[in-house]
Write a structure and sequence with these properties.
It contains 4 helices and no strands. The protein is an all-alpha fold and 126 residues long.
Length: 126
Amino acid sequence: MKLNFFDALNRIILTLLLVYDFFPNVIPFINIPKSILTGLLILTFVISIFTNRFQKHQSSRLTFKWQLLSTGYILALIIIFTLVGGVSQVGISLTNPFLWIVLVISIFDSVKVYKEVKVSQLNTKT
């Protein structure tokens, strides 16, 4: 999987936004309103999901792996930040049903891509 500059920048921004969301007092001179933070988190998350989907040079197999890694990375950050004692300002938590709904949608989408990969592999073998 090739991580280009835009993907890396998006991961860094998403990570920093989640750090700020869970630990707003880390940098006391930065004050992002909750509504703007929510919008930035959603925008960055959506960009991270769809970044590789529209690149024509990438195979479905790599897209599938990238989706799994992206979802796992975000979920791991939320779990780690929660275990360390952080509390989300915008309501991202392991008990939030919206998080689980998004996770289930992401898993269904990954399964769909996985089936496409398997079908294309079977077609190339015949």
